[in-house]
Amino acid sequence: MKNKIVTNLRKYKISFICLAGYMKIISNKLIKNYPKKIINIHPSLLPKFKGLNTFSRMLKNKEKKGGCSVHYVNKELDSGSTIVKKSFFIGSKDNESILKKKTQILEYRAFPEAIVKIFRNI
User: Fold this and answer.
1) 2-120 falls under which CATH superfamily?
2) Handedness of CA 85, 88, 94, 98 (dihedral sign)
3) Residues marked as catalytic
4) Is the pLDDT of residue 108 over 60?
5) Residue 115 has what pLDDT?
6) Phi, psi (5° rounding) for residue 115?
7) What average pLDDT score do residues 66-93 get?
8) E-only strand ranges, the chain
9) pTM of the model
């Protein structure tokens, strides 16, 4: 199956991959075939709160700021170099739902900004 993905990406001449809401680990084969060509958006200020349940962990940790990070995908979960970060202050009455809404507003700005930044530097 993993070979099929790379084969089809090549067949259709895909040269850049944008992931949003993709919550699976990417195969090493795909990463090797697309180095610095796969980006993802994550709902925290990486390197804090890699992985799942970011909003509940932010609240549990009594964080003052939340946000999102657009980063390159590498072999380690949410560990590739950051392209763009956007942040907001967490209010004392904020809950997971509010954090999600605040984060999504920033994600809609951060993701296209990161893509423009990448392609301007090529």
Assistant:
1) Formyl transferase, N-terminal domain (3.40.50.170)
2) negative
3) 42
4) yes
5) 97
6) -65, -45
7) 96
8) 17-19, 38-42, 65-72, 82-89
9) 0.91
